[in-house]
Design brief:
This protein is of the alpha/beta class. The chain has a single domain, classed as Rossmann fold (3-Layer(aba) Sandwich). 29% of the residues lie in helices and 20% in strands. The protein has six helices and nine strands. Helix 2 packs parallel to helix 3. The two termini are 13 Å apart.
Length: 240
Protein backbone atom coordinates (compact mmCIF):
# COMPACT_ATOMS: atom_id res chain seq x y z
CA UNK A 1 0.00 0.00 0.00
CA UNK A 2 1.16 3.51 -0.85
CA UNK A 3 0.11 6.37 1.43
CA UNK A 4 0.53 9.85 -0.03
CA UNK A 5 -0.26 12.98 1.99
CA UNK A 6 -0.59 16.48 0.52
CA UNK A 7 -0.91 19.99 1.90
CA UNK A 8 -3.81 21.02 -0.34
CA UNK A 9 -6.59 19.53 -2.44
CA UNK A 10 -5.03 21.09 -5.53
CA UNK A 11 -1.81 19.18 -4.90
CA UNK A 12 -3.78 15.95 -4.56
CA UNK A 13 -5.57 16.58 -7.85
CA UNK A 14 -2.34 17.35 -9.69
CA UNK A 15 -0.65 14.16 -8.51
CA UNK A 16 -3.72 11.98 -8.97
CA UNK A 17 -4.23 13.29 -12.49
CA UNK A 18 -0.62 12.42 -13.35
CA UNK A 19 -1.22 8.96 -11.86
CA UNK A 20 -4.41 8.43 -13.90
CA UNK A 21 -2.77 9.57 -17.13
CA UNK A 22 0.25 7.33 -16.53
CA UNK A 23 -1.86 4.22 -15.87
CA UNK A 24 -4.19 5.06 -18.75
CA UNK A 25 -1.33 5.51 -21.18
CA UNK A 26 0.31 2.26 -20.11
CA UNK A 27 -2.96 0.35 -20.39
CA UNK A 28 -3.66 1.67 -23.88
CA UNK A 29 -0.12 0.86 -25.00
CA UNK A 30 -0.36 -2.68 -23.66
CA UNK A 31 -3.96 -3.65 -24.45
CA UNK A 32 -5.40 -0.95 -26.68
CA UNK A 33 -7.86 0.26 -24.06
CA UNK A 34 -8.12 1.73 -20.57
CA UNK A 35 -10.88 0.37 -18.32
CA UNK A 36 -11.48 3.14 -15.80
CA UNK A 37 -13.95 3.02 -12.88
CA UNK A 38 -15.14 6.38 -11.59
CA UNK A 39 -16.18 7.24 -8.07
CA UNK A 40 -19.21 9.38 -7.33
CA UNK A 41 -20.20 12.04 -4.84
CA UNK A 42 -18.88 15.60 -4.76
CA UNK A 43 -15.20 14.97 -4.01
CA UNK A 44 -14.06 13.94 -7.51
CA UNK A 45 -15.98 16.55 -9.51
CA UNK A 46 -13.09 19.02 -9.68
CA UNK A 47 -10.73 16.17 -10.59
CA UNK A 48 -12.93 15.20 -13.53
CA UNK A 49 -13.25 18.80 -14.69
CA UNK A 50 -9.47 19.21 -14.68
CA UNK A 51 -8.99 15.99 -16.65
CA UNK A 52 -11.50 17.22 -19.23
CA UNK A 53 -9.95 20.66 -19.65
CA UNK A 54 -6.33 21.30 -18.70
CA UNK A 55 -5.26 17.68 -19.27
CA UNK A 56 -7.53 16.54 -22.09
CA UNK A 57 -4.67 16.25 -24.59
CA UNK A 58 -2.58 13.95 -22.40
CA UNK A 59 -4.53 10.74 -23.04
CA UNK A 60 -6.26 9.13 -26.01
CA UNK A 61 -9.76 9.34 -24.55
CA UNK A 62 -11.26 7.49 -27.52
CA UNK A 63 -9.75 4.32 -26.06
CA UNK A 64 -11.06 4.80 -22.52
CA UNK A 65 -14.05 2.84 -21.20
CA UNK A 66 -15.82 4.35 -18.20
CA UNK A 67 -17.62 2.48 -15.43
CA UNK A 68 -19.14 3.41 -12.07
CA UNK A 69 -18.17 1.71 -8.82
CA UNK A 70 -21.56 2.45 -7.33
CA UNK A 71 -24.77 4.29 -8.06
CA UNK A 72 -27.66 5.82 -6.16
CA UNK A 73 -31.13 4.34 -6.70
CA UNK A 74 -32.50 7.42 -8.44
CA UNK A 75 -33.49 8.16 -12.00
CA UNK A 76 -30.66 9.01 -14.43
CA UNK A 77 -31.76 12.65 -14.63
CA UNK A 78 -31.68 13.12 -10.85
CA UNK A 79 -29.06 15.51 -9.46
CA UNK A 80 -27.62 12.82 -7.15
CA UNK A 81 -27.14 10.23 -9.93
CA UNK A 82 -23.39 9.67 -10.11
CA UNK A 83 -23.54 9.13 -13.84
CA UNK A 84 -25.08 12.57 -14.39
CA UNK A 85 -22.32 14.33 -12.44
CA UNK A 86 -19.67 12.47 -14.45
CA UNK A 87 -21.52 13.15 -17.68
CA UNK A 88 -21.44 16.90 -17.07
CA UNK A 89 -17.93 17.06 -15.58
CA UNK A 90 -15.93 14.79 -17.86
CA UNK A 91 -17.84 12.59 -20.32
CA UNK A 92 -19.61 15.24 -22.39
CA UNK A 93 -16.68 17.71 -22.32
CA UNK A 94 -14.41 14.96 -23.70
CA UNK A 95 -17.06 13.88 -26.21
CA UNK A 96 -16.86 10.28 -25.04
CA UNK A 97 -18.76 7.85 -27.24
CA UNK A 98 -21.89 6.41 -25.59
CA UNK A 99 -20.70 2.86 -26.23
CA UNK A 100 -17.65 3.59 -24.07
CA UNK A 101 -19.75 4.59 -21.06
CA UNK A 102 -21.32 1.96 -18.80
CA UNK A 103 -24.06 3.65 -16.81
CA UNK A 104 -26.07 1.78 -14.17
CA UNK A 105 -29.64 1.41 -15.43
CA UNK A 106 -31.57 2.74 -12.46
CA UNK A 107 -34.87 2.61 -14.32
CA UNK A 108 -34.78 -1.03 -13.23
CA UNK A 109 -35.37 -2.32 -9.71
CA UNK A 110 -32.09 -2.28 -7.71
CA UNK A 111 -31.58 -6.05 -7.76
CA UNK A 112 -32.23 -6.20 -11.52
CA UNK A 113 -30.00 -3.17 -12.13
CA UNK A 114 -27.14 -4.92 -10.31
CA UNK A 115 -27.63 -8.13 -12.29
CA UNK A 116 -27.67 -6.27 -15.60
CA UNK A 117 -24.58 -4.24 -14.70
CA UNK A 118 -22.72 -7.44 -13.80
CA UNK A 119 -23.72 -8.89 -17.19
CA UNK A 120 -22.54 -5.77 -19.01
CA UNK A 121 -19.16 -5.87 -17.25
CA UNK A 122 -18.69 -9.57 -17.96
CA UNK A 123 -19.57 -9.07 -21.62
CA UNK A 124 -17.05 -6.23 -21.88
CA UNK A 125 -14.35 -8.54 -20.55
CA UNK A 126 -15.51 -11.38 -22.84
CA UNK A 127 -16.51 -13.43 -19.78
CA UNK A 128 -12.91 -13.48 -18.55
CA UNK A 129 -12.02 -12.16 -15.11
CA UNK A 130 -13.19 -8.52 -14.90
CA UNK A 131 -9.87 -6.88 -14.05
CA UNK A 132 -10.14 -3.11 -14.28
CA UNK A 133 -7.04 -1.04 -14.99
CA UNK A 134 -7.93 1.59 -12.39
CA UNK A 135 -10.70 1.98 -9.83
CA UNK A 136 -11.13 5.32 -8.09
CA UNK A 137 -12.71 5.25 -4.65
CA UNK A 138 -13.78 7.80 -2.10
CA UNK A 139 -14.43 7.26 1.59
CA UNK A 140 -17.18 8.63 3.80
CA UNK A 141 -16.78 9.82 7.36
CA UNK A 142 -18.30 6.48 8.41
CA UNK A 143 -15.53 4.62 6.54
CA UNK A 144 -17.80 3.43 3.73
CA UNK A 145 -16.43 3.20 0.21
CA UNK A 146 -18.38 2.72 -3.01
CA UNK A 147 -21.71 1.70 -1.41
CA UNK A 148 -20.13 -0.65 1.08
CA UNK A 149 -21.68 0.87 4.21
CA UNK A 150 -21.10 -0.31 7.79
CA UNK A 151 -23.37 -3.14 8.87
CA UNK A 152 -24.88 -3.82 5.43
CA UNK A 153 -25.40 -7.19 3.78
CA UNK A 154 -23.11 -6.49 0.83
CA UNK A 155 -20.06 -6.62 3.11
CA UNK A 156 -20.34 -10.40 3.30
CA UNK A 157 -20.79 -10.88 -0.44
CA UNK A 158 -17.78 -12.88 -1.67
CA UNK A 159 -18.82 -12.93 -5.32
CA UNK A 160 -17.06 -10.94 -8.02
CA UNK A 161 -20.11 -8.97 -9.10
CA UNK A 162 -22.27 -5.89 -8.74
CA UNK A 163 -24.87 -6.15 -5.98
CA UNK A 164 -27.81 -4.16 -4.65
CA UNK A 165 -27.88 -3.22 -1.00
CA UNK A 166 -30.35 -1.49 1.29
CA UNK A 167 -28.66 1.19 3.38
CA UNK A 168 -30.83 1.64 6.44
CA UNK A 169 -29.20 4.87 7.61
CA UNK A 170 -30.11 6.45 4.27
CA UNK A 171 -33.44 4.63 3.89
CA UNK A 172 -32.59 3.76 0.31
CA UNK A 173 -31.05 1.16 -1.97
CA UNK A 174 -27.70 1.47 -3.68
CA UNK A 175 -26.07 -0.52 -6.48
CA UNK A 176 -22.38 -1.23 -5.92
CA UNK A 177 -19.32 -3.21 -6.88
CA UNK A 178 -18.62 -5.84 -4.24
CA UNK A 179 -15.27 -5.80 -2.46
CA UNK A 180 -14.09 -8.92 -4.37
CA UNK A 181 -14.80 -7.18 -7.70
CA UNK A 182 -12.93 -4.07 -6.60
CA UNK A 183 -10.01 -6.14 -5.34
CA UNK A 184 -9.52 -7.73 -8.78
CA UNK A 185 -8.31 -4.39 -10.16
CA UNK A 186 -4.76 -3.74 -11.30
CA UNK A 187 -4.76 -0.37 -9.54
CA UNK A 188 -7.00 1.11 -6.85
CA UNK A 189 -6.79 4.71 -5.67
CA UNK A 190 -8.57 6.36 -2.74
CA UNK A 191 -9.22 10.11 -2.92
CA UNK A 192 -9.85 11.41 0.60
CA UNK A 193 -9.71 14.96 1.90
CA UNK A 194 -11.11 17.10 4.69
CA UNK A 195 -10.96 17.00 8.48
CA UNK A 196 -14.28 15.17 8.59
CA UNK A 197 -12.57 12.07 7.20
CA UNK A 198 -9.70 12.03 9.72
CA UNK A 199 -11.25 9.67 12.26
CA UNK A 200 -12.35 7.21 9.58
CA UNK A 201 -8.89 7.30 7.98
CA UNK A 202 -7.34 6.58 11.38
CA UNK A 203 -9.56 3.52 11.93
CA UNK A 204 -9.18 2.16 8.41
CA UNK A 205 -5.44 2.65 8.05
CA UNK A 206 -4.14 2.10 11.59
CA UNK A 207 -6.96 0.64 13.64
CA UNK A 208 -7.87 -2.94 14.48
CA UNK A 209 -9.40 -4.93 11.65
CA UNK A 210 -13.18 -4.61 11.73
CA UNK A 211 -14.62 -4.56 8.24
CA UNK A 212 -18.18 -4.60 9.62
CA UNK A 213 -17.61 -1.16 11.13
CA UNK A 214 -14.96 0.13 8.71
CA UNK A 215 -15.77 -1.29 5.27
CA UNK A 216 -12.90 0.49 3.50
CA UNK A 217 -10.65 -2.06 5.21
CA UNK A 218 -12.08 -4.63 2.80
CA UNK A 219 -10.14 -3.08 -0.05
CA UNK A 220 -7.03 -5.20 -0.46
CA UNK A 221 -6.07 -5.85 -4.10
CA UNK A 222 -5.48 -9.51 -4.93
CA UNK A 223 -2.72 -8.76 -7.42
CA UNK A 224 -2.65 -4.98 -7.83
CA UNK A 225 -1.56 -1.74 -6.25
CA UNK A 226 -3.42 0.30 -3.62
CA UNK A 227 -2.67 4.00 -3.24
CA UNK A 228 -4.23 6.46 -0.82
CA UNK A 229 -4.25 10.14 -1.80
CA UNK A 230 -5.03 12.18 1.35
CA UNK A 231 -4.71 15.80 2.33
CA UNK A 232 -3.12 16.76 5.64
CA UNK A 233 -6.52 17.33 7.27
CA UNK A 234 -7.74 13.81 6.50
CA UNK A 235 -4.37 12.44 7.64
CA UNK A 236 -4.20 14.52 10.84
CA UNK A 237 -4.78 11.62 13.26
CA UNK A 238 -2.42 9.14 11.61
CA UNK A 239 0.57 8.26 13.78
CA UNK A 240 2.77 7.30 10.86
Amino acid sequence: MNLLIYNTQQEIFEDLIAYIIKIGGQSIAETGRFNFVLTGGNSPKKLYELLATEHKDKLDWSKVYFFFGDERNVMPDHDSYNGLMAKKAILEPLDISEDHIFYVNTTLAPEKAAIEYTKAINAHFDDADPVFDLILLGMGDDAHTASLFPGTSILSNRDVEVDSVYVEKLSTYRISFTAPLINKAKNIAFLVFGAGKAEAAKHVLEGAKNTHLYPAQLIEPVDGTLTWFLDKDAAALLES
